[in-house]
């Protein structure tokens, strides 16, 4: 199974409980970014473009575990940057497992075989290896040759060692549906436990802004891909059937960014994993003080083309709880890849984009320098 039964039951029970308690907004997956530094320079990612002062920052073990506790989400996706560069990551993972969180450790796999011995197979732990297609497509996406082959070897080694292993892939404009379907066949033949897939979205700091998909292209691309796999039933996805149905244009969903809150070296990121337009010091502050209605498709220009899992998987899960028969039908019959698409959200009332990200970076650097000066002062006083 792409999602183990234990995890499906725990997460399902958690979501049902939130609905019975009448909670409109609740977290489902904590997106934990313990660092931004990476050993690749992918064209579709802007993480490594931060100044060194920020790239050198790390979330401590204590802060990472506290973030999971104050958030309370049953699932933690550890991303970055490249998380395996964090020297204390094994302790973070161990602590999260003690909290009984289901962990997906996202990695480009360049360090996976070297670091694998620091982790133990567990029903709470899954390696999530980044692959954006077959060899040529993936190596082009990450701007380095040989990465695909390294990742495949690491996947095989992880499976041989008894670990659960998924792949996570992002498709961009120009993706060939036939090659994408063949890629899914290839990774299933490797023995991976599941596939996480998402359309490329215009991350505002990414060097390459030309190959992100708009909503129309996203829907047609996923219809063309899933249609080559019996509506997606041919492959194991670690995502809800209704999210895949949404990608193929069969559902009209609003974004629920609070379902996937992000904690990184800046704090709790507003409003979501992709847009950094402010930061809260605590999860409570994030949930209560963020102007959620200012964001999302139809509300904000930057969100107009987004169909990414971090914004809409939570929506799909909530819809499955409200309409279980619909979810069951799509799961059994597969995603519809022909016929009229669901109406899209109108954009005529969305507010204009604001470009405020640089101010947050400048403020973070000022804080880092102030903390360093305060620490230096304490050391000088102690020496005297």
Task: Name the features.
alpha/beta, 12% strand, 9-stranded mixed sheet, 384 residues, TIM Barrel, 2 domains
Structure notes:
Helix 8 (177-189) crosses helix 9 (215-226) and helix 12 packs across helix 13 (324-333). 45% of the residues are buried. Helix content is 41%, strand content 12%. It has a 9-stranded mixed beta sheet with strand order 6-5-4-3-2-1-7-8-9. With 384 residues, the protein is an alpha/beta fold. Strand 7 and strand 8 (267-271) form a beta hairpin. The chain is built from 14 helices and 9 strands. The chain has 2 domains: 5-353, Aldolase class I (TIM Barrel), CATH 3.20.20.70; 355-384. The chain has helices spanning 5-20, 52-55, 61-71, 89-98, 112-115, 135-142, 147-160, 177-189, 215-226, 241-247, 283-289, 309-322, 324-333, 357-383, and strands at 29-32, 75-78, 102-107, 125-130, 164-171, 194-199, 262-264, 267-271, 276-280. The longest helix is centred in the C-terminal third of the chain and has 27 residues, at 357-383. The model has no long low-confidence stretch (mean pLDDT 91).
């Amino acid at each position: 199974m792409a999602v183990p039964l234990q995890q499906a039951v725990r997460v399902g029970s958690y979501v049902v409980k939130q609905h019975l308690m009448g909670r409109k907004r609740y977290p489902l997956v904590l997106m934990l970014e313990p660092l931004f530094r990476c050993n690749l320079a992918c064209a579709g990612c802007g993480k490594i473009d931060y100044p060194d002062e920020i790239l050198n920052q790390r979330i401590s073990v204590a802060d990472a575990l506290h973030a999971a506790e104050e958030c309370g989400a049953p699932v933690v996706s550890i991303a970055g940057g490249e998380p395996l560069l964090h020297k204390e990551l094994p302790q973070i993972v161990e602590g999260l497992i003690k909290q009984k969180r289901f962990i997906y450790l996202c990695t480009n796999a360049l360090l996976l075989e070297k670091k694998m011995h620091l982790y133990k197979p567990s029903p709470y732990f899954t390696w999530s290896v980044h692959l954006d297609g077959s060899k040529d497509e993936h190596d082009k996406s990450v701007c380095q040759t040989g990465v695909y082959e390294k990742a495949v070897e690491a996947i095989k080694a992880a499976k041989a060692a008894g670990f659960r292993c998924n792949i996570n892939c992002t498709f961009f404009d120009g993706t060939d549906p036939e090659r994408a379907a063949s890629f899914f066949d290839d990774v299933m033949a490797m023995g991976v436990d599941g596939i996480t897939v998402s359309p490329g979205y215009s991350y505002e700091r990414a060097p390459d802004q030309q190959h992100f998909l708009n909503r129309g292209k996203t829907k047609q691309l996923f219809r063309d891909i899933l249609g080559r796999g019996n509506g997606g039933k041919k492959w194991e996805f670690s995502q809800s059937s209704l999210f895949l149905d949404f990608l193929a244009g069969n559902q009209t969903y609003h974004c629920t960014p609070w379902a996937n809150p992000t904690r990184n070296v800046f704090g709790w990121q507003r409003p979501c994993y992709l847009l950094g337009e402010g930061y809260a010091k605590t999860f409570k502050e994030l949930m209560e003080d963020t102007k959620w209605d200012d964001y999302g498709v139809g509300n904000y220009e930057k969100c107009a083309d987004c169909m990414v899992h971090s914004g809409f998987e939570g929506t799909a899960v909530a819809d499955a709880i409200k309409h279980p028969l619909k979810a069951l039908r799509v799961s059994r019959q597969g995603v519809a890849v022909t016929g009229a698409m669901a109406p899209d959200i109108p954009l005529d009332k969305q507010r204009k984009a604001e470009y405020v990200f640089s101010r947050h970076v400048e403020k973070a650097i000022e804080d880092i320098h102030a903390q360093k000066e305060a620490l230096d002062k304490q050391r000088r006083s102690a020496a005297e």
